[in-house]
Amino acid sequence: MITRATVIGLLTLTALIGGGDELAGVQSSEPTKFLRGLSGEWSVVAEARLGPGQDPVRTESRETARLIGGRWLVAESSGTARGAPFTSILTLGYDDFAERFIGTWISGRQAHLWSYRGTLDASSGSLVLETEGPIHGDPTRTTRYREVIELDGPDRKVVRSMILGPDGAWFEFQRAEFVRLGPAGLPGVEP
Question: In the chain, what are the domains?
Answer without folding.
Answer: 4-180 (2.40.128.20)
